[in-house]
């Protein structure tokens, strides 16, 4: 999220608002098990996945959480991943 703000040259007030809003969310830390889960998700044969989507899926799997998305098709091929979406 920060990279988006920097690359689009958000001003200080808008960045401060973003940082303030993000205080209300939990940031899940990176660990070795998450890295391994990412490797597994990224290596599913015949189903290429963007690295960022793989991180999101791996994080959900690592922590036993459902993944909420509007892009079900990006994740529906990942075993054991619970996907919540209104999209078909």
Notes on the structure:
The chain has 88 residues and is mainly α. It has 2 domains: 1-29, no CATH class; 31-88, 3-Layer(aba) Sandwich (Rossmann fold). Helices cover 51% and strands 5% of the residues. The protein is built from 5 helices and 2 strands. It has helices at 2-7, 12-22, 32-42, 51-63, 72-75, and strands at residues 67-68, 83-84. The chain has a two-stranded parallel sheet with strand order 1-2. Helix 5 links the parallel strand 1 (67-68) and strand 2. Helix 3 crosses helix 4. The longest helix has 13 residues, at 51-63. The chain starts with a helix and ends with a strand.
Topology:
Elements: H1 2-7, H2 12-22, H3 32-42, H4 51-63, E1 67-68, H5 72-75, E2 83-84
Parallel strand pairs: 1-2
Helix pairs in contact: 3-4
Q: How would you sum up the global shape?
A: elongated
Average of pLDDT: 94
CATH class of the largest domain: Alpha Beta
Rg, alpha carbons: 15 Å
Low-confidence stretches: none
Summarize the structure.
Helix content is 51%, strand content 5%. It has 88 residues and is mainly α.
Give me some keywords for this one.
88 residues; 2 domains; 2 strands; mainly alpha; Rossmann fold; two-stranded parallel sheet; elongated
